[in-house]
Design goal:
The protein folds into two domains: about 15-170 and about 225-315, Bira Bifunctional Protein, Domain 2 (BirA Bifunctional Protein, domain 2), CATH 3.30.930; about 330-415, Rossmann fold. Helix 5 (about 135-155) packs parallel to helix 10. The strands form three sheets. It has an eight-stranded mixed sheet, with helices on both faces. It has a five-stranded mixed sheet with strand order 13-12-14-15-16, with helices on both faces. With about 425 residues, it is α+β, with helices and mostly antiparallel strands. It has 16 helices and 16 strands. The chain binds one RNA strand of 76 nucleotides through helix 3, strand 6, strand 10, strand 11 and helix 12.
RNA sequence: GUGGGUGUAGCUCAGCUGGCAGAGCGCCAGGUUGUGGUCCUGGAUGUCGUGGGUUCAAGUCCCAUCACUCACCCCA
């Protein structure tokens, strides 16, 4: 083995890759049903877009970006998240000049230079959804409902929804100052003191028990909201209750990216160890202006496809998503028969039947083994004898029953027996 | 970035205080010259993660390095 994949890059191959496509499909279907359209955005952007959008003070920008210079001397960065790029595209192509909100989804890899761990990778897959151009709290609830339905479609019963609000540009600064005053009075280690200065909210969700204890009496955002943020938050919660989506109010929930305002939420799965966040989202009402656009509120979420795969496997065991099922398996005996079987298999496929065959001049025994493993309901056995008779042996693999069927009728008969 | 654990066949792993490289599963073939799933028999596959060191002798001991993994951190 001379080459290996770069560090921290997961790869997926059958049968496990079926879970990956199932996860994408579950969320894409939920999004499409709600009127969200697919948008394809670039994997890399101008570095400044992320620096200004995600925020210079975040760890993501300050120490985790894959930044490089291209041959033209431009500084580019592999996307560490989707929202900034999607919003940039919306503004650049004036998608926000029509009816609002603009509702979009996308999916693909994102990149962060971090120490790999279970559920944390340097290249990771996200499904992302954004609703841009309205402050209506109904849309906040809509995005949550879509994510929720995605998890439900995958049969995940143990997902928790954690809900909070971060206030707006009116009330958040006041809260931030109050929190900072509180934190400065505490005896904290150097790294945490610095975080308290740069991003004080982050100190609230420190996992270390000794820090948790000290922060226990910290002021909470929910006690510092302005009237409109409080009303917004209450409406979102009422809407979720209407939809029977259970949530937990978590006033210490913060988000790692600077752009979040008002509604913020996270989806969490209890069987994943340290990287238990399987999705997160929220409102970003100031982001458009941060990247040079007009005032344009928005809300969206990203879910971690890799982590959801782990959650599906944790709840349902590996291979639960199953794979493409073969229905008919061709077993040729000899070269002339192999040509005929290949033609038959192709004809079956064109007729909408999932069909495969034994390759490489395998013997009958080996080919039958292949038929068995394929999961097919029927094996079609064809040798010189059958060719001469103009028919094939159709074997029902579960029962072992076998009958002779004329080649001219075989596609029709098989479709019939498969209920097609 | 910090700290722990692990790297041996395609997979899961055993290999004691250094002394001939192993098992199960899988794969291939045969038992059954045209019939799978069970059973029996046989077979193939290893730079023991990589590089150095100690030793008559290293999978085993030492150092370095790479990767994986768990936690912190970060976040999806």
């Amino acid at each position: 083995m001379t080459f290996q994949a770069p560090k921290g890059v997961p790869e997926f191959w059958p049968p496990r890759s079926a879970t990956l496509t199932a996860v994408r499909t579950a969320f894409a279907d939920a999004a499409e049903r709600a009127g969200y359209g697919y948008i394809e955005v670039p994997v890399f952007e101008e570095t400044q877009l992320f620096a200004r959008g995600v925020g210079e003070s975040t760890d993501v920008v300050s120490k985790e970006m894959y930044t490089f210079e291209d041959r033209g001397g431009r500084s580019l960065t592999l996307r560490p998240e989707f929202t900034a790029g999607v919003l940039r595209s919306v503004l650049e192509h004036n998608l926000h000049t029509g009816q609002l909100p603009v509702k979009l989804w996308t999916t693909g890899p994102a990149f962060r230079y971090e120490r790999p761990q279970a559920g944390r990778y340097r290249q990771f897959q996200q499904f992302d959804l954004e609703a841009i151009g309205t402050e209506d709290p109904t849309v906040d609830a809509e995005t949550i409902a879509i994510a929720w339905d995605g998890y439900q479609a995958l049969g995940l019963s143990r997902v928790r929804l954690l809900l909070n609000t971060l206030g707006c540009k009116e009330c958040r600064p006041l809260y931030r100052a109050a929190l900072q005053d509180f934190l400065r009075a505490l005896d904290l280690d150097e790294a945490t003191r610095q975080r308290a200065e740069i991003n004080p909210l982050r100190v609230l969700d420190d996992k270390r028990p000794e820090v948790r204890a000290k922060v226990d009496a910290a002021p909470l955002i929910t006690d510092h909201l302005c009237a409109s943020c409080k009303a917004h938050h209450d409406q979102v919660r009422e809407l979720l209750a209407d939809l029977s989506i259970p949530w937990e109010d978590t006033p210490r929930l913060v988000r790692g990216l600077d752009y979040y305002t008002r509604t913020t939420y996270e989806f969490d799965h209890p069987m994943l160890g340290a990287q238990s966040g399987i999705g997160g989202g929220g409102r970003y009402d100031g982001l458009s202006e941060d990247i040079g656009g007009p005032p344009l509120p928005g809300i969206g979420f990203a879910v971690g496809v890799d982590r959801i795969i782990l959650a599906v496997e944790a709840e349902h065991g590996p291979g639960a998503a199953g794979q493409a099922r073969c229905e008919v398996y061709g077993v040729p005996l000899g070269e002339r028969a192999a040509r005929a079987v290949f033609g038959l298999v192709t004809e079956l496929r064109r007729a909408g039947v999932a069909a495969d065959m034994a390759f490489g001049g395998k013997g009958l025994k080996g080919a039958m083994k292949g038929a068995d493993r394929s999961g097919a309901a029927f094996a079609v056995i064809l040798g010189e004898r059958d060719l001469a008779a103009g028919s094939a042996q159709v074997k029902t693999l579960e029962t072992g029953e076998q009958s002779e069927v004329p080649l001219t009728e075989i596609v029709m008969k098989l479709k019939e027996r498969l209920g097609k």
